[in-house]
Design a protein that fits this description.
By secondary structure, the chain is α/β, with parallel strands linked by helices. It folds into 2 domains: 185 residues, Rossmann fold, CATH 3.40.50.2000; 170 residues, Glycogen Phosphorylase B (Rossmann fold, 3-Layer(aba) Sandwich). 45% of the residues lie in helices and 14% in strands. It has 14 helices and 12 strands. A 6-stranded parallel beta sheet has the order 2-1-3-4-5-6, with helices on both faces. A 6-stranded parallel beta sheet has the order 9-8-7-10-11-12, with helices on both faces. Helix 6 packs across helix 9 and helix 10 packs across helix 13. It is globular.
Amino acid sequence: MKVLLVGNYPYLKSQSMDRFAGMLDTGLKAAGHQVRFLKPPPAIGRMFPSATGFGKWLGYLDRFILFRPLLKQAADWADVVHICDQANAIYIPWLKGKPHVMTCHDMLAIRSALGEIGEHRTGLTGRIYQRWILSGLKKAMHVASVSDTTHEDVLRLTGLSPDRVSVVRNGLNYPYRPMSARESFYHIKQMELANVSPFFLNVGNNNWYKNKEGLLRIFSQMVHLAEDEEMNLVIIGAGLTERLRVLAQKIGIWDRIRELSNVTNEQLCALYSVAEGLIFPSLFEGFGWPIIEAQACGCPVFTSNRRPMTEVGGDGAVHFDPLDETVAAEIILQAIQGKDILRELGYRNAMKYSTVAMITGYVRAYHLSAP
């Protein structure tokens, strides 16, 4: 089968979506399919390369005007077009009946634009943009959702018939595994964390739904309850905002926090392997990759008692109310006493998320998309 993968505009710097597209590219080729990968090339946007401000608007010209003939030409080669991110559902009407599959990772931005999420308000232009995306989704031949939670949102908000929407769960985007103490220490030393122990880990960006403020308050309560002089928090991803840094100082934990960006997969594997646990207090997610990444490395996972975190983490994770910081801290500190059991249960759960199974699911979806 000839598959055209459509990825994201480079200046969006959407690392998780780039990883997802890379997984598909590698996995489909390994399964014997012909694959081409296409993303909107920067042209006008090169004048001001940014995902925000004026650069964002220039990028729209690249994505929604100049990219159109390139996509139509590339689609002529393919048996099926796979749009890898629901944010690009705007491209669907351009395909003119070509079999296609859209992966929907989450419906959070659309739900927010529709006023369904009280914790976050979307501005006027954002509401218009998300309705445009939703209009494209409603025209999709087949939508593959990465979790049951997202699947239910897609069915409810698009009105698509159930035979046009399936669930294809993500696999691990890297061969994460329990790393030996010796190898882990090598990477930990390279990151200048050799003297930062013990530590808990958090992985993710600063999007509102990641609940970084809740993370800091939970950790503060843990320090208070445990009276532990050595407890630290390592945060992977975008650095904390100035507001969050001020909060960390105010609640007395700033000197216990280490921030790391541009961490390699092997370095992340080492961090997961030696951390006391992953604290992942998200309010919403489409899937939550760090949950299974951590579990695959034998790292205990402490996450929200909301879907899809409960769905993805399964019995291998400990769940808490992300809005009740004191009780969350108590649950984590109590559960960490049985961390050996948590490591084993989590590892077993992570092994369910096979990349091979993911690729098989998408090939099935490609066949379902044919007229």
